[in-house]
Predict the 3D structure of the following.
Amino acid sequence: MDDKAVVQIAQTASKAVEGKDLPTARVLLYSLMSEIRLRTSNSRLVSYPTALKEAARLLDQNQPKEAAETLLTALNTLMVNDQVTPIPLVLA
């Protein structure tokens, strides 16, 4: 992409922001990015033993609904990691 095209895209994105057309501005600016983004999601296994103990306690107290909610919360808890690598660094 040459300098003229970059300037034109930047101006169009600026006009989109001024017109509050943020989705269009985001797409235009995204095309100017020179990086690789990697997102990984992992389950937080460290929280499982605590959740299991809490669920067992709730079951002992005859609260199965609360125990199920505790386990679902632990299962649905994710840790998200973003790694950004500039393309010029990769090319170098």
Strands lie at 35-43, 78-86.
